[in-house]
Amino acid sequence: MSSMDLLCCENGVIPDEVKAYIDPILINDDRVLENLLRDDAQSSIKNYFVTIQREITPKMRELVAEWMWEVCEEQQCQEEVFALAMNYMDRFLCTIAVKKTQLQLLGTACLLVSSKLKETIILQSNVLVAATDSSFSLHDLQLWESLVLSKLKWDMAAVLPHDFIYYLVRRIDKDLLYDYSKVQKHAHFLIAMCVRDFKFSVFSPCVIAIGCITAALDGLDWLRRRAWTMTALNDRFSQITGINKNIIQNCTDAVQSMVAASISNYVAMKCQNPEEKSPDLTTFPATPPDVADVSHLNF
Q: Which InterPro entries does the record cross-reference, listed alphabetically (predicted)?
């Protein structure tokens, strides 16, 4: 064996992930959408703050969700990782009461499990623990990972709003597929905003997807250019999915209100601090103090 046989030419750099092409056969098969809608109808989340949880509040959930989103942004996770982790957390909180001091640990365990389902390169446990300023140990994280899997009965392949976007856009207007990346980018961002806010948990994943697609199309000026009204678009979505148009309208209104409030808050912030740069969602705080000290907050 020569020395050249032992030469390693790998540079240690992990190449960018390559996503599979969207299969036109599946996209055009109505049975796929029908199966998604069937699972969607069974994915409702009850208000566990009223029925089960006694220590945690919606505000605490929002703080932990903000932190989880920032972790996903910093680690450049797939868009679905955050939404799936929040799905796990909400479903878990429907089954058992947790203490305020355990909420971030639960969120971290949900992120770990979610990344194992959605990522080719999973989030590392030690990185997640470090992100909490070592608020708990690796052993604690492993125990809670097992607890999450057990309480959810290993049913981890949940339906997400992301799953519906292409199927719905395809059935609204085939020409939209040429601008699909723009619609998808806007819709994914809006979905992440919805997932953070517990008030959207009353809507199914499909309804959230519809509300975010409608808001994205409105923001991209597609409705005006195509001479569509939101009411007409919601009616069309109702025909496609069989979902009551009043429910769709309620979600669409909620998404629009959320976007308007975000814009208003941003404008107010800029007026108070004109020199301040716009917030960077990819900035990764080592430990958000409001989350780390969530047990000491008075809501």
A: Cyclin, Cyclin-like_dom, Cyclin-like_sf, Cyclin_C-dom, Cyclin_N, Cyclins_cyclin-box
